[in-house]
Specification:
Layout: E1 20-31, E2 34-45, E3 49-53, H1 60-67, E4 75-80, E5 83-84, H2 89-93, E6 96-99, H3 111-121, H4 126-139, H5 155-167, E7 173-177, H6 185-200, E8 204-208, H7 212-218, E9 221-226, E10 229-235, H8 236-243, E11 247-252, E12 266-268, E13 271-275, H9 279-286, E14 297-303, H10 307-315
Helix pairs in contact: 3-4, 3-5, 5-6, 8-10
Length: 328
């Protein structure tokens, strides 16, 4: 295994607690006049899956790039396994497995040779290299494809290979950026199962996704980043209990009429959100009073406490599942 003695998957501190794998302290990053990160603090322990969520342009891509050592912060520090990423990038990268959103494989090489090549770059040799290639291929259903060129793989198969490359050296920290984008049902299920297995074995996993149901399936902790800052983080159930709320949402084909502007509501153009402990009852009471405005009503939605409602509460914006953050 290529991880240093500073930390290994499954490692614990002297008290028997999970050791801290990732520590982000006061990280700032700007591109000209555009502030991408405005003082991010984040700690992730081994055995933890942390889902990183944020609106489009919130700073997720910049943060992941800095953690991976691909960019340097303007201020602040990132440590992986106790190693300062900026001061010792090569040592830190041996502890990191990165699978960015854009698939990156060598198309002329076979699946086996892709895995061997990247395992070698991570420092694996001979027996350990063969064992890890075999293990990750088995975990992601790539064994029947080991002799096939990457150029001959389907989109889902290529996505599995892309993820396997990031994991072949059994990293202490795994950074997965939209790993199931464009994946078929089988590939998505295999990746989620593998993520659970990595955490069970002690790796820290930072999982960026636009599919909220995946976070719920993984029972992941959550950090929500907005305008370059972490605005909420914690265990999913605790966040829902603290920030989740039920509401009634009405959407009109014009500006929200005054009759629907109830005390405590939030209006966004043609949409109004009315916090209420009983959205169905509120709807039954309000709709008959719309009068001539009823013809302008286009949708009625009952919002229950959920991760999506947490996101709306802390960011003031609806979750946009298909938004892709530009790389700054």
């Amino acid at each position: 295994m290529s991880t240093s003695s500073a930390i290994r998957p499954g490692g614990a501190d002297g008290l028997g607690h999970r050791a801290t794998v990732l520590q982000v302290e006061g990280v700032h990053k700007a591109y000209g006049s555009t502030v991408a990160l405005a003082g991010v603090d984040l700690t992730v322990a081994g055995g933890t899956i942390l889902a990183l969520l944020g609106p489009n342009g919130a700073g997720k891509t910049s943060l992941v790039s800095i953690i991976a050592g691909l960019r340097r912060p303007d201020r602040g520090r990132v440590r992986v396994g106790g190693i300062d990423v900026a001061r010792a990038p090569q040592r830190a990268r041996q502890l990191i497995g990165l699978a960015p959103q854009e698939t990156g494989v060598y198309l002329p090489l076979t699946v086996r040779d892709n895995l061997r090549f990247f395992a070698g770059l991570a420092g694996l040799r001979r027996t350990e290299l063969r064992e890890r290639v075999g293990a990750v291929a088995a975990a992601l259903g790539l064994e029947p494809l080991l002799g096939r060129r990457a150029s001959q793989l389907s989109g889902g198969e290529r996505r599995r290979l892309h993820t396997a490359i990031a994991l072949v050296h059994r990293p202490a920290l795994v950074l997965l950026d939209e790993p199931t984008t464009g994946a078929d049902v089988r590939t998505r299920a295999e990746i989620l199962e593998l993520v659970r297995g990595l955490a069970d074995q002690g790796s820290a996993v930072v999982y960026s996704t636009h599919y909220l149901h995946e976070i719920e399936e993984l029972d992941a902790s959550v950090a929500i980043i907005d305008r370059g800052r972490i605005v909420a983080d914690g265990v999913l159930a605790d966040l829902i209990a603290r920030y989740g709320s039920s509401a009634l949402e009405l959407t009109f084909d014009r500006l929200v009429p005054d009759v629907a502007r109830i005390d405590g509501c939030t209006v966004d153009g043609s949409r109004v959100r009315i916090p209420t402990p009983d959205p169905a009852l509120t709807a039954a009471q309000l709709l008959p009073h719309l009068g001539p405005h009823a013809d302008a009503l286009r949708s009625v939605e009952i919002v229950r406490p959920s991760l999506e409602s947490v996101f709306l509460t802390v960011t003031g914006r609806h979750f946009a599942p298909h938004a892709v953050e530009p790389v700054g």
